[in-house]
Amino acid sequence: MERKNTEFDIRGVNHLALVCKDMAKTVGFYRDILGMPLIKTISLPRGMGQHFFFDIGNGDSLAFFWFPNAPPADPGRSAPSFLPTQGSIVSAHGSMNHIAFNVPADKFDDYVARLQAKGVAVSRVLNHDNSPTGAAEEVTDDVFVRSVYFFDPDGVCLEFASWVGKEFGPQDVAHAPMTAEGVPDESLLAAVARPTLEPAH
Averaged over 122-138, what is the pLDDT? Predict the structure, then answer.
């Protein structure tokens, strides 16, 4: 028997966002060892840290935050205390910061309203762009993803996310990854967007 979600047209996982201690080592492992293309780098506003995205196929991504003052890995502290826009979103190294479910862009606003109608407390909508603040009040040509956040009953941070159809290019990989000491590794900046090696024949 086919099981179908009759409430929301959820189309898999948009991205899984984890927290790393050293973004440079993370890039070296996921891109250079596992072969996942690095498709988007973000320098978070106000010195909050970095957010890098790797293509894991099927239109899905694995993403990592690097926070300069994140606590060390500590099982049991696996989610942020607040929703984005409502307080600190920092969580420990190796933790799962939030899960983003991919939803259709043309249904995004309806889904936000539907969550609210079901009594789910949600964050304000973030139209993520490349501006200094990282978000626009309205959807513009620079917006690449729209997001709304909410908690599950156990405090796991969840997100409905909609790509807005903008293709990522080399200009979207523009930030040197931070080391564990909070220093950008400029030696990786030139190579950060290079394609992965072809498999040996």
Answer: 89
